[in-house]
Amino acid sequence: MEFIRTIFDLFLHLDTYLDEVIRNYGVWTYGLLFVVIFMETGFVVTPFLPGDSLLFAAGTFAAIGSFKILLLYPLLFAAAILGDTLNYSIGHKIGPRVFEQDFRFLKREHLEKTQRFFEKHGGKTIVLARFVPIVRTFAPFVAGVGIMNYGRFITYNVIGGFLWTTLFIFGATSSATSPSCVKTLSLSLSPSSSSPSCQWSSNTGATAKKQKPAPPPK
Known about the structure:
By secondary structure, this protein is mainly α. The chain is built from 10 helices and 2 strands, in the order ααααααααααββ. It has one domain. It is globular.
């Protein structure tokens, strides 16, 4: 039971533990990042997983050499696209009865919130929802229920996934290489210093602090 609780906590707060995970698991961290982003976008029951904050954290560590950006970026871009595609397929499989019956694993208020989002923004919801926690997870599911055909969905899916991963990952790399951030990072790398490194935040309000550099995955 304790092991399961530890794993759940790791997934739930991966953005916070990322430095430690890189040091302990090396190259396997890439796979863990892929799984969390895929699950956050791909399963309607896991909207609580980190999304924005995890992309930003990964970009920050890529900027200081803990990740190879040419591997990290396409990997997480693919996770975002595949996750939404799976979620769409699940919604298509369940169909309109999701709005007529009570499903224990679905929160009706989230479904109704996403439906209102669709009514207001139309197909652009798949793009805009990438930047709105909760709605991001439910939008492809609701689209699959019958609001949008697959051809139109996949177009918006690719555009939204591209914008989401690009803005957060490369926004983080730009922030982490700014003069003020580099100075802070340098101070935090000193063994005798207790000064924290650059901090990141997301729309979900998650924050994390890096105390010492993580070696790049081998």
